[in-house]
Amino acid sequence: MVKSQIIITLTLAILILAPLIYFFSNRSGFVILKKELKSIIYSPIAWIIISLVMLLNGFSFTAALEILRKNDVDETLVGYTFSSTSFWLTYFFIFPVITMRLFAEEHKVGTIETLLTAPVKTIHVLLAKYFSALIFYIILWIPSVVNFILLWLSSPENSFAIGSVGGAYTIILLLGVFNLSIGCFTSALTKNQLVAAMACFTFCMLHFLVGFILQDLPIPELWRSSLFYVSTVNHVEVFINGLIDTRQFVYYLSFTGLILFVTYNVLEFRKWKA
Fold first, then answer.
1. Closest to 102 (Cα-Cα) out of 35, 54, 155
2. Chain centroid to CA 87: how far?
3. Cα separation of 81 and 99, whole Å?
4. Is there a smaller number of Cβ atoms within 10 Å at the N or the C end of the chain?
């Protein structure tokens, strides 16, 4: 058991650190990353996204507080906050909107060929765009973290499990790492931003629903339980209870690497065509 945990931990370390070390050790990739971040932060749509996410997260947080204040229930503040309709609404719209412009915009204005044929590796372009989207995604969730901190500072009696909060934001980060890679892939496939957004939304929705869709189908129980395990809802429920499952780290990080690898090959094909 201990040996398997060590192997899993080492695998996670490699999956997380290897691409980060490779990317940030290259100056050209870092320059592209700064350019991409500026283009995101300075765009009007970025501030619209930030405002909407803050509004939805604030609503789900205050609604959870109100429910717990008026009712004697077993559910926790963290559980209510991260299972509300507002939270899932944020979840579904955020990934398509962040990623739809990453490559589709370059295709549309005709700069993708210039970018890919410049004296910089395709992998650096891909990782720069991906990490810029991931950094922006992390920024979006900072205000909701502040909500919990302010509640803890102002009303110590409204205590909540720190482990549950940590677990909730851990799974939010993992879901972001995974779904943003899907968004990169769909954006690399088309010139149309709307098509890229709809394709990303569809993939995210299928990943969310897979467990529910297969519950009533006449398939072997082993298949059903295995496919239910990859359902987003199941993962969120585990982590908001403060349980950190390393298998889900491996699952999300491995598939993220696979999707980015496929995206890289799509870009290399377009580079070859150019």
1. 35
2. 13
3. 25
4. N
Q: How far apart, in Å, are the Cα atoms of 244 and each of 75, 137, 163, 203?
A: 19, 21, 9, 25
- Structural element, H or E, at residue 155: none
Query: pLDDT class for 77, splitting at 50, 70, 90?
Result: confident
Q: Both tokens of residue 52?
A: 């909407």
Q: Which residues contact 30 (CB under 8 A, 6 or more apart)?
A: 23, 24, 128
Amino acid in position 167: G
Q: How far is CA 102 from the centre of its chain?
A: 15
Q: Enter the tokens of residue 247.
A: 């298998």
Place of tokens 């909060």: 165
Distance in angstroms (rounded) separating the CA atoms of residues 37 and 167: 27
85-124, pLDDT tens digit by residue?
Answer: 788 888 888 999 998 888 877 777 666 666 666 667 888 8
Residues ≥6 apart with Cβ < 8 Å to 99: 133, 180, 182, 183, 184, 186, 187, 196, 197, 200
Residue 251 C-alpha from the chain's centroid = 13
Q: Is 117 helix (H, G, I), strand (E, B) or coil?
A: helix
Rounded-to-integer distance, Cα 205 and Cα 209, Å: 6
CB 170 within 8 A of CB 82: no
Are 122 and 268 in contact by the 8 Å Cβ rule? The answer is yes
Taken in order 147, 201, 237, 10, is the CA torsion positive or negative? Answer: negative
Query: Domain coordinates of the chain in residue numbers?
Result: 2-273
